Amino acid sequence: MTETGERVSVRRLLALAVPALGVLAAEPLYVLVDTAVVGHLGAVPLAGLALGGTLFTIVSRQLTFLSYGTTARAARLHGAGRRTDAVSEGVQATWLGLAVGVVLLLLVQPLAGPVARLLAGPGEIADAAASWLRIAVLGAPMVLVALAGHGWMRGVQDTVRPLRYVLAGNAVSLVLCPLLVYPAGLGLEGSALANLVGQAIMASLFVHALVAERAALKPELAKMRAQLGLGRDLVLRTFAFQACFLSATAVAARTGAETAAAHQVVWELWMFLSLVLDSLAIAAQSLVGAALGREAARQAKGIARQVTWYGLGFGIVLGMLFAALSGVLPAAFTSDPGVLAEMPYAWWFFVALQPIAGVVFALDGVFLGAGDAAYLRTATMLSAAIGYLPMIWLSLAFDWGLAGIWFGLSLFMLGRLFTLLLRVRSGRWAVTGAVPADSSAPSTA
What we know:
The protein has 445 residues and is mainly alpha-helical. Helices cover 82% and strands 0% of the residues. One of its GO terms (cellular component) is plasma membrane.
C-alpha cells in the first residue's frame, strides 16, 4: 500500500474488493448451475444433492479460519516487510488444511449414510445424499488447501490470482458436470466427480503458487498451534451463525409451506447481498492487518473509519434499491399468491437491515484483519443468545411467523452493531506489530 496518511484510495480498496467479490460469487453461481443440471434427473437426485451439499457446506464453513485467520497473520507480517514469513503462514495453513481434510474424509465416509438417514429418514433421498457426499468429501483436503491459499494471498494483498484459480476450477467443473451426469451416465455421482475435479485444479494452483514463492515447505507445529488458537474462536463464531440460521429455517418450515418458501426467497437474497458486502470486509482485513504489522495504528484506525462509512453508504444504496424493487422482484421468484402474501413480512426487515449489515460486515473485516477473533466470537455468541435464538423460538411458540423470525435477525444484527461500535471506539483492537510465530491473535484485554 503506497498511501502514508490515514486513508487509502478508493481505487486501492476496489482493487482488493472487486476480485474478492468474484471469488465469493463464483461458488454460489456454480452451485446454481449444478442444481439445474441435477434437477433434470428428477426429484430424488435433486433432494439428495440439496441434503448432501448442505452437510458438506456446514462442515467446510466451520473451517473458514484457514482463510480468515491466515489473512490476519499473513497481513501483519506483510505489512512489517516480512513477505517470506507471511507466505510461510500460508505453508503452515496448507499443511493444517491437508491434515484436517484427511481426518474429515476418514470420518465422513462411514458416517455419511447414518447422518443422511437421521436427517431425511430411510429411503431414496438419504441414499442419494450419502452417495454424493462420499464422493464429494474426497475433495475436503483440497477445499481446505484452497481456503489456506485464499488466506495468505489476501494477506499479501493479492486477490487477483485467487479469482483466476477459482474461475479455472469452476470452469472445468461446469463443463464436466453435464457431461458426466448425462452422456457418461453417472447421474448424481457425476455431479460430485465434476466438483471434485474442479477442487483438485484449484488446490493444485494454490500449491504451485506457494512453491513458486520459494518459501520453506517444512511443517512447523508451533505456527500451526498458533493458527489453531485463532481458529478456535472463529469456529465458535461460525457455529453461532449456523445455529441461528438453521433455527430460522426450521421454524419457518414448521410454520407452514408458504412461510418457509417466502423465507427462503428473502434469505437467499440476504445471503447474496452478504457476499457483496463481505468483499469490502476482505479488503479491510488485508489493509488493516498490513497497517498494524508496520506499527501504523493510526492508519489502521483511519482505514476502519473509512470502510465503516463505505459500508454504511453501500448498505443504504442496496436498501433503497430493494425497496424500489419490492413490487417487482418477489414475483420473479414465485407466482404462488400465498407465498407472495407472506413475503412482505420479511422483505421490509431485509431492506431496513442493509445499512446495518454494511457497517457490521465492514467492521467484521477490520477486526478479522486485526486478529481480534476472541472479541468477535464473544460478541456474536452473545448477540445470538440474547437476540436471535430466543426470538426465533418465541416466534414458533406464539405463531409470529416471518415477522418474528426477521425481527430476531434484526435484534441479532443490532446486537452485533452495538458491540462492534463499542470495540472500534475503544481502539483496543489496534495492537501493532507482526504476529509472532508462537502466539495467537492480539489480546482482547
